[in-house]
Write a structure and sequence with these properties.
Blueprint (H helix, E strand, L loop, with lengths): L3 H16 L1 H31 L3 H4 L9 H25 L3 H23 L1 H8 L3 H7 L2 H7 L6 H12 L3 H7 L6 H32 L9 H13 L2 H11 L5
């Protein structure tokens, strides 16, 4: 596992990357931008999907929507807004356990956005599904299997262990007094999965536009793209964590 001095050095590097002032600012700015962006896009998609599209005319939408795919994306986008905004608020008031729980849900929303981007028909099928359909087709493990390694089970399991489910380890870790590093790790995870979900959302919208043959009127997204770029520029926590993880060797 490495010598005690190596572990101390690794912890120090993680602390520095987590608590860096510019990184902390960029994480929070990105979460604010994502919360607003997901909400605005979601509202626009729901409205547009109800008005335009062939689904109401040809009778394929049980809800009377013009395009069930767009409405599904809209609901999922607004769900992402609620999760990013809620988790960020929980971190601001020191409730790391609740933030961890919401972040695990965001990971599942990220998976669904990816599935909708990969196959235009997925979104409409999800909107029209019942519980049995979702258990057979859209559980996290199903989407990870379909992703071909894009999403790792070990990452999802880590989120489940730390807030996603009630576990002894999660309670010990997230409910103890903290210097601030752990809260910043959670804020990084929130920014990371939020940015990834945003990219899949844009891909899914493009897939729908290509399928339908039209452009979707969306609000100005420059604030979100700028916040993502700024976060990538200033937040080195992920790189530091991956470097340390890769350098660890099993104990003899």
């Amino acid at each position: 596992m490495g010598s005690p001095s190596d572990r101390d050095s690794g912890r120090h590097a993680v602390d520095l990357a987590a608590m860096d002032g510019e990184a902390r600012r960029a994480r929070r700015a990105l979460c604010r931008a994502l919360t607003d962006g997901f909400e605005q896009v979601g509202e626009r998609l729901i409205l547009g999907g109800h008005i335009i599209g062939p689904d109401r005319v040809d009778g394929t939408s049980p809800f009377g929507n013009g395009d069930d795919s767009l409405v599904a994306l809209g609901y999922l986008s607004r769900t992402a807004a609620a999760l990013v905004g809620g988790a960020s608020q929980m971190l601001d008031v020191g409730n790391r356990y609740a933030a961890g729980t919401l972040t695990r849900q965001l990971v599942e929303v990220e998976y669904l956005h990816w599935a909708f981007a990969e196959d235009h028909d997925e979104a409409a099928a999800w909107l029209r599904s019942n519980r049995d359909d979702r258990l057979k087709r859209w559980q996290p493990r199903h989407l990870r299997e379909r992703s071909g390694g894009r999403f790792r089970g070990v990452d999802y399991a880590e989120h489940c262990e730390h807030g996603g489910h009630p576990t002894p380890g999660g309670a010990r870790s997230l409910l103890r007094t903290d210097s601030g590093t752990q809260a910043e790790c959670l804020h990084y995870e929130l920014a990371h999965h939020g940015a990834s979900t945003w990219e899949y959302l844009l891909m899914a919208i493009k897939a729908n536009a290509d399928h339908r043959g039209w452009e979707h009127p969306l609000p100005d997204l420059d604030v979100v793209s700028t916040a993502i770029s700024d976060w990538h520029l200033h937040d080195r926590f992920g790189e530091v964590w991956e470097t340390i993880a890769a350098s660890r060797t099993p104990e003899a």
